[in-house]
Amino acid sequence: KNRNLVRKSHDIFCVTGQGGVDFPPILKALRDIHFGGWVIVELDAYKVPPGGPAVSVRMNIEAMRRIGFRA
Fold first, then answer.
1. Spatial contact of 68 and 24, defined as CB atoms under 8 Å apart
2. What per-residue confidence (pLDDT) applies to 12?
3. 24-48: pLDDT as tens digits
4. Residue 63: CB partners within 8 Å, gap ≥ 6?
5. What proportions of the chain, in percent to the nearest 5, are helix, strand and coil?
6. Which of 32, 33, 53, 51 has the alpha carbon at shortest distance from 43?
Protein backbone atom coordinates (compact mmCIF):
# COMPACT_ATOMS: atom_id res chain seq x y z
CA LYS A 1 0.00 0.00 0.00
CA ASN A 2 1.01 3.63 -0.38
CA ARG A 3 2.65 4.79 2.85
CA ASN A 4 2.04 8.42 1.88
CA LEU A 5 -1.76 8.11 2.08
CA VAL A 6 -1.85 9.32 5.67
CA ARG A 7 0.85 11.92 5.18
CA LYS A 8 -1.32 13.78 2.67
CA SER A 9 -4.19 13.98 5.14
CA HIS A 10 -4.72 16.68 7.73
CA ASP A 11 -5.57 13.90 10.14
CA ILE A 12 -2.95 11.52 11.44
CA PHE A 13 -4.80 8.21 11.13
CA CYS A 14 -7.68 6.86 9.04
CA VAL A 15 -10.31 4.16 9.19
CA THR A 16 -8.85 0.67 9.45
CA GLY A 17 -8.11 -0.76 6.02
CA GLN A 18 -7.84 2.63 4.30
CA GLY A 19 -4.31 3.49 5.36
CA GLY A 20 -0.79 2.27 4.86
CA VAL A 21 -0.96 -0.95 6.91
CA ASP A 22 -1.38 -4.11 4.84
CA PHE A 23 -3.38 -6.18 7.34
CA PRO A 24 -3.98 -9.46 5.41
CA PRO A 25 -0.30 -10.58 5.53
CA ILE A 26 -0.20 -9.75 9.24
CA LEU A 27 -3.31 -11.83 9.85
CA LYS A 28 -1.85 -14.67 7.78
CA ALA A 29 1.39 -14.63 9.76
CA LEU A 30 -0.58 -14.78 13.02
CA ARG A 31 -2.61 -17.71 11.74
CA ASP A 32 0.53 -19.47 10.46
CA ILE A 33 1.95 -19.51 14.00
CA HIS A 34 -1.45 -20.44 15.49
CA PHE A 35 -1.58 -17.25 17.51
CA GLY A 36 -4.58 -17.37 19.81
CA GLY A 37 -4.21 -14.15 21.74
CA TRP A 38 -5.64 -10.68 21.34
CA VAL A 39 -4.68 -8.29 18.56
CA ILE A 40 -5.10 -4.61 19.31
CA VAL A 41 -5.45 -2.11 16.49
CA GLU A 42 -5.23 1.40 17.86
CA LEU A 43 -7.01 4.24 16.12
CA ASP A 44 -6.08 7.73 17.21
CA ALA A 45 -6.42 11.31 16.01
CA TYR A 46 -8.51 11.09 12.87
CA LYS A 47 -11.56 12.88 11.63
CA VAL A 48 -14.58 11.31 13.30
CA PRO A 49 -17.42 10.66 10.84
CA PRO A 50 -20.86 12.24 11.19
CA GLY A 51 -22.64 10.34 13.93
CA GLY A 52 -19.69 10.49 16.29
CA PRO A 53 -17.48 7.88 17.92
CA ALA A 54 -20.12 5.11 17.87
CA VAL A 55 -20.23 5.27 14.06
CA SER A 56 -16.42 5.30 14.00
CA VAL A 57 -16.26 2.17 16.13
CA ARG A 58 -18.79 0.40 13.93
CA MET A 59 -16.89 1.35 10.75
CA ASN A 60 -13.63 0.03 12.17
CA ILE A 61 -15.15 -3.22 13.45
CA GLU A 62 -16.71 -3.83 10.03
CA ALA A 63 -13.37 -3.10 8.34
CA MET A 64 -11.55 -5.53 10.64
CA ARG A 65 -14.12 -8.24 9.87
CA ARG A 66 -13.76 -7.65 6.11
CA ILE A 67 -9.99 -8.07 6.49
CA GLY A 68 -10.57 -11.37 8.30
CA PHE A 69 -10.23 -10.52 11.98
CA ARG A 70 -12.97 -11.55 14.39
CA ALA A 71 -14.16 -8.50 16.29
1. yes
2. 63
3. 899 999 999 999 999 887 766 667 7
4. 15, 16, 17, 18
5. 35, 0, 65
6. 53
